[in-house]
């Protein structure tokens, strides 16, 4: 799943480990653009796994999984395209302690393609494209905003290659950065969201 290389981006890894967030209370993430309807296009063709959720929604869902884990409940609203695939979806995920994720994806309109992570001690604003950020701004009460920038030559793909090479060299069959259980959890949420919308 392509979205999973997001976890290997050094900036995403950094915010996932930063204890200054305290308790993460909310994750907001959106990915969308206008894709004119064409029944032969892969995004609109149910036989090709079309729809906003499977192609675009996986990125917001993957970020929420990384930072908040598996939700207790999910509320979904959205609409279907003429071919029966999901054209757009707004999803709210509920977690223990009243934490939440608010996720949005669309093939009908452009979205911000940014993300916000709100903790009890710090907030992160992740620039577009949030799944491959080059800049994140951290804000804390009583402190100047802190900008994090991706080093030249770095990205999620390079980090993923390093992780795979290390795993092969060490004889590991699973990454601690991207465990199989998290991939399956994301896919289950996506499939459930599609089911609730009645997508093909």
TrEMBL record:
Domain GFO/IDH/MocA-like oxidoreductase, chain residue ranges per copy: 13-122
Keyword Oxidoreductase assigned to the entry: answer is: yes
Q: Which Gene3D superfamilies match?
A: Dihydrodipicolinate Reductase, domain 2
For the keyword Oxidoreductase, the answer is yes
Sorted alphabetically, the keyword list is:
Oxidoreductase
Q: What start-end ranges are recorded for coiled-coil regions in this protein? A: none
The molecule here is called Gfo/Idh/MocA family oxidoreductase
Q: Which organism is it from?
A: Nonomuraea typhae
């Amino acid at each position: 799943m392509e979205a999973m290389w997001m976890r290997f981006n050094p900036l995403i890894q950094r915010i996932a480990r930063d204890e200054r967030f305290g308790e993460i209370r909310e994750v907001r993430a959106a990915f969308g653009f206008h894709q004119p309807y064409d029944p032969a296009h892969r995004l609109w063709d149910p036989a090709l796994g079309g729809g906003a959720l499977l192609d675009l929604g996986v990125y917001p869902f993957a970020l929420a999984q990384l930072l908040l884990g598996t939700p207790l409940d999910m509320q979904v609203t959205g609409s279907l395209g003429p071919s029966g695939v999901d054209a757009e979806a707004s999803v709210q995920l509920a977690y223990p302690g009243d934490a939440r994720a608010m996720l949005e994806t669309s093939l009908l309109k452009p979205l911000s393609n940014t993300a916000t992570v709100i903790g009890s001690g710090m907030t992160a604003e992740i620039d577009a494209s949030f799944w491959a950020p080059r800049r994140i701004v951290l804000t804390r009460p009583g402190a100047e905003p802190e900008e994090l920038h991706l080093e030249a030559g770095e990205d999620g793909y390079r980090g993923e290659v390093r992780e795979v090479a290390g795993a092969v060299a060490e004889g590991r069959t699973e990454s601690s950065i991207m465990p199989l259980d998290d991939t399956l959890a994301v896919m289950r949420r996506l499939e459930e969201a599609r089911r609730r919308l009645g997508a093909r």
